Amino acid sequence: DEGAQKRNRKMFGVLLGTLQRAKAETASSKTAAIRQQKLEKVESKLKSDREKLIEHQRSFLVERRAAELSKRDAIRAQRAAMDERLLRLTWDGHELALSAFLRTETGPPIYYMPKKHNDATRARLRDQQSHVRKHLAESPIMLADPLALPDATGEANGAAGGP
């Protein structure tokens, strides 16, 4: 039977073609699956990198905010120290200016200047002035630069002694 053999060969060829086509499809589906896995891996890496970047930006903003707040607090502390120093200078300057006048012993004190000084008023004025100068000896008003804030050693910046 040659007809049967031809038919068998034809069927075998069709079957072989179907098998080859199925093999090619499975190979392409495997490569597609591998490609899909690689794509998912890349997407997950991209997502994790994006999350890391967002977290880094958050931490950077938090650190920058903390630095700005500490800088602001330091500036406020400096300003408060300068305001306190200016207030002390004002009061000490006022006390120094009043030392040119005689002060009553009773309270509230009254400052006055006699029209003519005698020995007693001169002596009392000298005593009051020496008392005020002794009291103001540690005052910043007696420094060469009264506005200079003291450094860590307690001395004003470059100021040594006073009048």
Can you characterise this structure?
There is one protein chain. Mean pLDDT is about 85; it is low at about 155-163. With about 160 residues, this protein is mainly α. The longest helix has about 100 residues, at about 1-100. Helices cover about 70% and strands about 0% of the residues. The protein is rod-shaped and about 160 Å long. Strands 1-2 form a two-stranded antiparallel sheet.
Number of strands: 2
User: Could you tell me the strand content as a percent range?
Assistant: under 5%
Task: Report the order of strands and helices.
Answer: HEEH
Helix content: 55-70%
What form results from the Cα inertia axes? rod-shaped
Strand order of the largest sheet: 1-2
- Global structural class: mainly alpha
Q: Indicate the mean pLDDT.
A: 85
Major beta-sheet overview: 2 strands, antiparallel
**Model regions low in confidence, pLDDT < 50 over at least 5 residues:** 156-163
Task: Count every helix, treating DSSP H or I runs of 4 or more residues as helices.
Answer: 2
Output the radius of gyration.
Answer: 48 Å
Regarding quaternary structure, what we see is: single chain
Distance between the termini: 138 Å
